[in-house]
Amino acid sequence: MKIRDDYTCPLEIVHDIIRGKWKTIILYQLKEGPKSLSQLEREIEGISQKMLLEQLAELKDFGLVQKKEFEGYPLHVEYSLTDRRGQKMVEAVSIMQMVGVDYMIENNMDDALINKGIVTREQIDKVRREQG
Amino acid sequence: MKIRDDYTCPLEIVHDIIRGKWKTIILYQLKEGPKSLSQLEREIEGISQKMLLEQLAELKDFGLVQKKEFEGYPLHVEYSLTDRRGQKMVEAVSIMQMVGVDYMIENNMDDALINKGIVTREQIDKVRREQG
DNA sequence: CCGTATCCGATCCGATACTG
DNA sequence: CAGTATCGGATCGGATACGG
């Protein structure tokens, strides 16, 4: 994915960014704070190093993620959300997360949610009562 | 794009939905209210009927969009956001829109924004002063 | 006006091998 | 640990034609 330079609609460009397979998950992981490449690689199940690096580079180009490199060996870098756009974008991602939870509850995928500690049985029951 | 049935992470599924080329724009258009197919086709520049129908079907499968069919000729249908998930998702899309605007302003793509009536010169100047 | 089917090039992404 | 390069299959999306 290459960021063009002739966008006429803001959504177009954001969408070009978000469509990569791993971007939302990466942003969501970085919500917890700065992380190293290997850390992200461990925490994001199924991602390859190549993909991770590619997606991070694009997020950086778009000003959602910034990179800090430390001197010395072993090499160490830290990726984190940018103050303005990165943080803002994570707000959107967080809402999308809620929408996903809603869908999973409605379609009886509760177990996966509970196993991952994303919600508790009690919260699901509450939502169920509200939905009817 | 097919919605799987073995998701373990809410973001995964939302991302599967959002990655299609036109979904965010369709959702954003529907924010204004129910619209017919042909109306959407006219308003979304560059989209083909095939794509529009495909994406609408997926949005419907995921419970973001609902469809209402009217009797008689000429045929008429109305697509609209669903009350809970559709409306919620558009909140996320709106935030993404803001992020896109931010990017375009920072990268001197003001003209496109102003031409489309998305923001005014004054608003941009204000943002510029805040950003420095 | 609304919807389905097919064909085909563009792109995405995973695996793998290699460098500083 | 962090990053680059390449290759090939899978998927996506545009064009086009056809049907209710």
What is this structure's SSE topology?
The structure is a homodimer of 132-residue chains.
Chain A: H1 10-18, H2 23-30, H3 37-43, H4 49-61, E1 65-70, E2 76-81, H5 85-106, H6 110-115, H7 121-131
Antiparallel strand pairs in A: 1-2
Chain A binds a DNA duplex (20 and 20 nucleotides) through residues 1, 19-21, 36-38, 48-51, 53-54, 69, 73-77.
Quick rundown:
Two copies of one chain form a homodimer. Chain A is mainly α and 132 residues long. The first copy, chain A, is built from seven helices and two strands.
Write structural notes for this entry.
Two copies of one chain form a homodimer. Chain A has helices at 10-18, 23-30, 37-43, 49-61, 85-106, 110-115, 121-131; strands at residues 65-70, 76-81. Chain A is mainly alpha-helical. The first copy, chain A, has one domain (10-131): Arc Repressor Mutant, subunit A (Orthogonal Bundle). The longest helix of chain A is centred in the last third of the chain and has 22 residues, at 85-106. Chain A starts with 9 loop residues before the first helix and ends with a helix.
